[in-house]
Model the fold of this input.
Amino acid sequence: MIKFNAKDMFNTRKLVHTALFISLGIILPMAFHAVPNAGGIFLPMHIPVLLCGILCGFPLGLICGGLTPVLSSLLTGMPPAAMLPSMVFELAAYGTVTSLLMRVVRIKNFYVKIYIVLISAMLCGRAVYGVLNALIFAAGDYSLSIWLTAAFITSWPGILIQIILIPAVLIAFQKARLFNFDNKKVKAQNEAGVGGDVEVKT
Done:
């Protein structure tokens, strides 16, 4: 059973980092707006959400995933209103799955763990996106081929960027001592099923 420590989940540093990731989730897509369908190809909004889930934990990963597309839509018009509901649930799934799997996956090798967490979250988020579109948001007009095209074929450059960039960013954060994945206190908390998986530095 996963236990949560409210004090750890909502400490000030994690809240500040979550706000920064939300801001990045709004700013990064703006750099791609000049390119047609750049959001669907490069998936810039996904990167801060996935990082937030890994580094800030639950429920901040969920909050980041849910709020980022809403605020971006309100402030920049992207994603458009028609795409917003499914994207909210998709990104919320990314933030939730990464944050929970960081607690559940008990693999000592940091790189293997990150890739398991990252790829699992990417698949779960896409599954949520497809199911909700097929059953609710685009019922009757959505098909398996449309989902496969949007989730994997069109977006393969973004998927590749995430697989390469996110572990590299995490390693850079570790080397800069902004976050600590090997802290003894964190490991003890993980073994007890409480606390967080990453120690947040000042």
User: Anything to note?
Assistant: The chain is about 70% helix and 0% strand. The CA atoms of residues 2 and 104 lie 8 Å apart.
